[in-house]
Amino acid sequence: MTGTIIPVIETERAVIRPYRLSDFDAHVTLWADPQVTRYIGGRPFTREESWDRYLRFAGLWPVLGFGFWAVEERASGRLVGNAGFHDLKRRIEPSIEGLPEAGWALLPEMHGKGFATEVVAAIHRWSDATLPHDRTVAIVDPGNTASLRVAKKCGYRELLTTLYRGAPTVLLERRAPPR
């Protein structure tokens, strides 16, 4: 899918846009924060690991036609997180391979303000209108009650608790409204 144009999505408080190379240091800060990584990997990421994730986010778009966006706070213009869809070919049962898997992460100062729900709802409006899939999935650590609430507010329902990398993981699904 070469030539994929990454859209810009705007909400009241966010600009959800393609990553820029100038975003990398803010991206490193996000993924080095122990509150951000508590339920995503369980430990802060190194600069090198953040670079791998950064390149993965960029590489998803031309290959899959979807991917992750940088999330910019509209008021300040600063990068405060990311959100989007990927297919990581995870070894998980039941398999979710081939389905867009939603994910999001925000700096701790953005937590508890409805910002994640605003962003996640916006990317799903895009996916509903654009992607050929009628179903998206998400996996969330069962202890991450904030992300579970965001997912449910955005139309996800819990399918089951399974294991991913030996740890309990909640698998959720969302059906796109009929077109």
Describe the structure.
By secondary structure, the chain is α+β, with helices and mostly antiparallel strands. The protein has five helices and eight strands. The protein has helices spanning 24-32, 34-37, 47-64, 115-130, 145-153, and strands at 9-10, 14-17, 68-73, 79-86, 101-106, 135-140, 157-164, 167-175. A five-stranded antiparallel sheet has the order 1-2-3-4-5, sandwiched between helices.
Task: Give the key terms.
179 residues; alpha+beta; 5-stranded antiparallel β-sheet; 3-stranded antiparallel β-sheet; 5 helices; 31% helix; globular
Write the layout of secondary structure elements.
Elements: E1 9-10, E2 14-17, H1 24-32, H2 34-37, H3 47-64, E3 68-73, E4 79-86, E5 101-106, H4 115-130, E6 135-140, H5 145-153, E7 157-164, E8 167-175
Antiparallel strand pairs: 1-2, 2-3, 3-4, 4-5, 6-8, 7-8
Largest sheet: 5 strands, antiparallel
In the predicted model, the low-confidence regions spanning at least 5 consecutive residues are none
Which structural class is indicated by helix and strand composition? alpha+beta
Radius of gyration from CA coordinates: 15 Å
In total, how many beta strands?
8
Spatial shape: globular
Quick structural overview:
By secondary structure, the protein is of the alpha+beta class. The protein has helices at residues 24-32, 34-37, 47-64, 115-130, 145-153, and strands at 9-10, 14-17, 68-73, 79-86, 101-106, 135-140, 157-164, 167-175. Strand 7 (157-164) and strand 8 form a beta hairpin.
